[in-house]
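Recall the central idea of this unit: under ordinary conditions, the amino acid sequence of a chain determines the structure it adopts. In this exercise we apply that idea directly, starting from the sequence alone.
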Amino acid sequence: MHGASFALTVVFIAGLTTSAIADTTVSIVDVQESAVARALWDRIAKDYEAEHKGVTVQFKYIEGESCKEKLPTMLQSDSRPALVYSWGGGVMDAQNQAGFLKDITAEAAPFEENLAQTAVNAFKVDGKTVGVPFDTGLVAFYYNKDLFKKAGVNAEAIKTWDDFLGAVKALKAAGITPIINGGGDKWPMHFYYSYLIMRIGGENALADAKAGKNGGFKNSTFVEAGKRLRDLAALEPFQAGYLATKYGEAAGMFGDGKGAMQLMFELLPAMQGPSSTSGKGLPEEDIGIFAFPIVSGGKGKATDTLGGVHGFLVTKSAPPEAVDFLKFFSQEKYAKEAAATGGYIPIYKGTATAITDPLFRQIAEILAQTTYHQNFLDQDLGPSVGRVINDVSVSVAEGKITPEAAAAAIQEAADQQ
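Accordingly, the structure predicted from this sequence is:
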């Protein structure tokens, strides 16, 4: 081969090799339901791509329950996503133990300093960082102010579990469905069971049960929580067909004014409009919020809160650009925009002041005053126990199993996990 031609060929091949190396895809599996948050995240991806030629960031949005079912298979695949949405907890621990996650402690340390420490800690396993959080959520009661007024119910007066049951009875007497529930997905019912456990047993209830103290999950706290849940369900407070209603459908029903309350996390106000028949739902000024009531004689406080700490886990085969994107994603300007637009409540220090949405501001204020924050039990307790928690919550409400049998089933799952 002629020397010049050979040189040109080498340059050409080298160019191809460099291009191939530079072209990187950061694939992200996400369950985000908020259209506002999705729009922001898609724009962040475009901003990153504009500054990092040859890198493509792809968000793939999957419905929450479907994602939970598909994720184990995805993680085992050679083409696993680089980043996956996570609620942390025992499920994350199990994924790490299976060898699916990457230790990013060194890479994340510089920008983690700007994030709330409690949220950062939620994405560590044995002191190692395996993911990066972006928000903290809150499960609370959202209510239709107009329907409460028609039934003569004052939300501010609902302080105890007995007060709450009284409100349910008053709404039923007024011909109003008291509560919308997405029982078809099961986990919305576990919010009731979880909060009752917290209100009865206090902040050490879960830790003690995990440690096997006082009978573990079979102790009186879990049994009593089941009895209280059964007492509520016996009043028939939920809409007809609630056991077949999916979570998104339930949000739309609340937006359509078909029920007075819904115990749900912070995305309900954003979801109820688009999910409703009209596509508009209830005006935000017609929606109120109140904390899950205390149980008289219980150890829990009204300021003890339940909710997810959400973030992205980095999988073991993720390229370096994945962590670099999380650093870019975690910038203050994007956190402030999320706060200002009502996309979510960011955990970047100091950005909560940018929240303008009244309901989101109220949620942020409640979280700022929390005395103990508990992650979703179906995530916190790991995949096997979590599934049982969700199953028995619905079964107890239906009256299919006793509270004692439910507690025993949780303990059995914990023994086998």
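The longest helix spans residues 3-22.
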